[in-house]
User: What shape does this take?
Amino acid sequence: MEHIVFLTGRLAQASLTRVLAGIEAAPFTWEVREIGLQVAALMTTDLIRRRVAAPVFSDAEPEGEPRRADRIIVPGRCRGDVDALSLHYGVPVERGPQELKDLPRHFNRSARPVDLSEYRVAIFAEIVDAPRLSVAQIVERAHQLAADGADVIDLGCLPETRFDHLAESVQALKAAGFEVSVDSSDAQELLRGGKAGADYLLSLTLDSLWIADEVAATPVLIPRVPADEESLYQAVAQLQRRGRAFLADSILDPIPFGLTASIVRYHRLRARFPDAPIMLGIGNLTELTEADTSGINAVLFGIAAELDVAAVLTTQVSQHARRAVREADWARRIMHAAAHHGTLPKGMSDALMTVHAKHPFPDTPEEIGEIAAQVRDPNFRVQISPLGLHVYNRDGMRLGQGAFELWPQLKLEDDADHAFYMGVELARAEIAWQLGKRYVQDQPLEWGCAAPRVTEDLARWCAPGTTMKASRNKATP
Assistant: This one.
């Protein structure tokens, strides 16, 4: 059985031991080694190299030949080159999760890795105001959408709005390497787009199938009106008989104007044509529902996975839907993995958990109190629990539910640098506590795919003595 040595600091040693002891049927043996450092988060690979002799032998077998460690796990916020450390010790050295309470889930996930590089649904991202943009602006927008995950750039034509540069736009996008679709209710615009080299045309009805005979573009078929399912079925049957590629779209209606009925229509379409490629247009939900789009996308792509949908058409026009393509890209990967492995879409990625966290409060108030009782320096630590914000140092514990409530108790009026730092940390902690997010001192809050992960250089903003590394000559009143 693999033997793992966990390196930690004094304050976390007891908690880490409890967590590891609580892992049922662990496929490894383990030991916790405190390396003479109070705060595990301040560990660096250079410090480990100086304090832990190579090779690393187990301290758990006092009799006989000591066993050599098979793996070394360092705190998740340990800074430095762990690959170089692996070479130094001759065994794998890896970072654990940032919170030690996440170790059970860390080992569970690493034992069953899920490949999120695979997906089946193509994302059509519509530029809804294409006629009002220049060719250069359209190409620039296309690059942005592709960077977020779009596979096809859809040029949305506007009613009663001239799109004189439609052909030029299609050609410019094709020259830049994009797949292109043209979306219009005007037959002449569809013909111009198809003749210019568009890959797809949105949308043809049973009455306009003749357009498909004029151009090579793949048509997207829709019913004459959403409720006229038979007209869509006839159009699909005609193109199947011709051996012609197509996508079929039953039209997803917004809430409360027929959403449920439209989902049933998609289900009937799949039952009627088990092998037909289906398109699902989701803008009527993401754009017209004032709710976080990450959750809406998750549900819609779950439906798409169950129906084996081939393509999704999305937009990001409304400000609240401005990340719709990026969310769609994550959603299609997660839901594909869930469907492929026959498992619930859990434990694969936190990308769509933009507002909440699965485990926002890893420590109980009692556990935080145990750690606080060991602190012997003036530096403030901040943690959150279901009770609120816990701020503590050698002078005791302060508990509150907001920054303004706690601020007077810190007495930092004469220490501007430390006051700035603590103001930032208390504000983050309050936001995390209110929303149910994970808070880690000295780390930005995580927002899933809604915002890029950043590593902040605290030294850039704060003079020495403001963080947990504070010099001990600044006593806190």
Observations:
- DSSP finds 17 helices and 15 strands in the chain.
- The chain has three domains: 2-111, 122-341, 365-461.
- The radius of gyration is 29 Å.
- The longest strand covers residues 2-8.
